[in-house]
């Protein structure tokens, strides 16, 4: 037993490999072909889905597939609701329409950010510059242009092209908060007053950005108003809204309008006293409104004085022509109730609002504003508070006493044709303050105001007194000249040659 040796297991004979090309002729192994072995292996290991569908009888009837579809639909709905809830909790959206005042302010602010981004080095632009904090706005390829023309005193003009974000998607950061801006334009909706398509700006940021939105809008407003600091903005009625007419104008000096002695000072003193009495009016239950009537012949400086007065007190002007076609009582009342802050309302040719006037070449087209509608707009129940109204007319005799009674018109001033003292001051202003260093020494300049006539201050004063005497003598003869006519004459003539033509300008005014 102990001497027996262990018999090694029998060695299996090496099976030669069967080429792929002769698979069909392969030798039978245990009576099963190679394709049958593969099918048996696959059939022996079915997937989980196959087990469910084969072993569950409900799938055979189609109920399982319907349930699977319902489950997938429910999963999709839940995911949408979850995304919506997350968006509401994590994101904040601010919408601005083209009708809102902040709409142009924000576009101008975005244009300023784009200009600052273009001012940095090329290596600090784009996404890399934004990550480094060098720029606050990603470059955009969807732009729009706003063209403005600046007119110079010499008659030339420059065109300024402002590239603002166009319709599309834009990205910027403000105080470390990133925002997405979508500017959308609906070509099917139009603003009936301006004829422009309806537009919408949508700002989207994280919910933590809520606190910076008021600061962002304040900065946009300050940037928009920076161009009007020290200037006078003239608004005109555009439909039922007030809109700036052209670019802000440089403030006109009070001394640039020469009125009769004491008139300008008296009106300015009264309006400054009114601006400081808001509490006084409220304590006495008096409507905080002030009305002024400036009347006189054409060319006496009524509108020019109002423009200079607005610049002196830092107010803007809302210009309204009561003879405008399409102006009605309701529209007038609506406009007077929505006047921009710190603005003077200027009603020119107020007598033209009366419907009893007919269409003539002198007065223009008949207005749809009625007399009662004008009175209600001035001091009716719906009239606004904190309001300053200036009315002008060339025909004071046509005004109804009810229109110019106290409460509607608190101060009336006549701006008449030139008196001798006015003509003297205007002459001295034109020729006495000329910069002689800019005048040619040869005296041959085609511009009479630039000719060097080598006149001393005493000579200018003497010639000015002579002009005043000519105007006063003409007034005693029943002839007069407007300040506008004298100003035009001085522009066309030199200091000495203008004296001879003053008397010819004095004519008899038609009654």
CATH architecture classification name of the largest domain:
3-Layer(aba) Sandwich
CATH class of the largest domain: Alpha Beta
Query: Main beta sheet, described?
Result: 7 strands, mixed
Q: What gross morphology would you assign?
A: elongated
Radius of gyration: 42 Å
CATH-derived topology of the largest domain: Rossmann fold
CATH superfamily of the largest domain: P-loop containing nucleotide triphosphate hydrolases
Number of strands: 15
Q: Low-confidence stretches at least 5 residues in length (pLDDT < 50)?
A: 1-7, 12-42, 355-365, 435-442
Mean pLDDT metric:
77
Membrane topology: Single-pass membrane protein
Domain BCS1 N-terminal: 66-257
Catalytic activity: ATP + H2O = ADP + phosphate + H(+)
InterPro entries: AAA+_ATPase, AAA_lid_BCS1, ATPase_AAA_core, ATPase_AAA_CS, BCS1_N, Mitochondrial_chaperone_BCS1, P-loop_NTPase
Q: Could you describe the 3D structure shown?
A:
- With 511 residues, this protein is α/β, with parallel strands linked by helices.
- It has 3 domains: 91-226, no CATH class; 249-414, 3-Layer(aba) Sandwich (Rossmann fold), CATH 3.40.50; 420-505, no CATH class.
- It contains 16 helices and 15 strands.
- It comes from Cutaneotrichosporon spelunceum.
- It is found in: Mitochondrion inner membrane.
- Belongs to the AAA ATPase family. BCS1 subfamily.
- Residues 288-419 form the AAA+ ATPase domain.
């Amino acid at each position: 037993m102990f001497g027996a040796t262990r018999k090694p297991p029998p060695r299996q004979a090496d099976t030669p490999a069967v080429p792929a090309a002769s698979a069909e002729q392969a030798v039978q192994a245990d009576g099963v072909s190679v394709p049958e072995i593969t099918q048996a292996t696959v059939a022996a290991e079915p997937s989980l889905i196959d087990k469910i569908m084969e072993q569950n009888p409900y799938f055979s009837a189609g109920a399982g597939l319907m349930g699977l579809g319902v489950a997938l639909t429910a999963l999709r709905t839940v995911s949408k609701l979850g995304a919506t809830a997350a968006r509401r909790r994590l994101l904040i959206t601010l919408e601005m329409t083209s009708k809102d005042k902040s709409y142009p302010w924000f576009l101008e602010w975005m244009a300023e950010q784009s200009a600052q981004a273009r001012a940095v080095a090329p290596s600090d632009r784009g996404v890399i510059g934004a990550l480094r904090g060098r720029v606050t706005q990603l470059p955009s390829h969807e732009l729009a242009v706003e063209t403005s023309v600046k007119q110079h005193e010499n008659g030339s003009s420059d065109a300024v092209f402002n590239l603002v974000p166009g319709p599309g998607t834009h990205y910027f950061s403000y105080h470390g908060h990133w925002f997405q801006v979508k500017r959308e334009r609906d070509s099917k909706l139009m603003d009936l007053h301006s004829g422009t398509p309806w537009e919408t700006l949508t700002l989207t940021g994280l919910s933590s950005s809520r606190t910076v939105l008021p600061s962002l809008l304040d900065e946009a407003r300050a940037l928009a108003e920076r161009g009007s600091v020290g200037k006078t903005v003239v608004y005109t009625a555009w439909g039922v809204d007030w809109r700036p007419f052209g670019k802000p104008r440089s403030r006109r000096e009070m001394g640039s309008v020469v009125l009769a002695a004491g008139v300008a000072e008296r009106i300015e003193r009264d309006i400054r006293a009114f601006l400081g009495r808001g509490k006084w009016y409220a304590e006495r239950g008096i409507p905080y409104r002030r009305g002024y009537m400036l009347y006189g012949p054409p060319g006496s400086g009524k509108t020019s004085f109002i423009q200079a007065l607005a610049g002196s007190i830092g107010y803007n002007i809302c210009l309204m022509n009561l003879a405008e076609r399409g102006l009605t009582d309701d529209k007038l009342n609506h406009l007077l109730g929505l006047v921009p802050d710190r603005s003077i309302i200027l009603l020119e040719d107020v007598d033209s609002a009366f419907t009893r006037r007919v269409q003539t070449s002198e007065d223009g087209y008949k207005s749809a504003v009625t007399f009662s509608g004008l009175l209600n707009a001035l001091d009716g129940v719906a009239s606004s508070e904190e309001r300053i109204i200036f009315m002008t007319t060339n025909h004071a005799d046509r005004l109804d006493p009810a229109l110019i009674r106290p409460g509607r018109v608190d101060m009336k001033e006549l701006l008449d044709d030139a008196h001798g003292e006015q003509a003297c001051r205007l002459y001295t202003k034109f020729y006495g303050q000329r910069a002689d260093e800019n005048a040619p020494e040869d005296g041959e300049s085609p511009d009479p105001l630039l000719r060097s006539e080598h006149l001393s201050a005493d000579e200018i004063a003497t010639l000015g007194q002579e002009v005043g005497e000519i105007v006063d003598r003409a007034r005693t003869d029943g002839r007069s000249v407007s300040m506008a006519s004298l100003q035009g004459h001085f522009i066309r003539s030199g200091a000495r040659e203008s004296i001879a033509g003053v008397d010819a300008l004095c004519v008899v005014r038609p009654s």
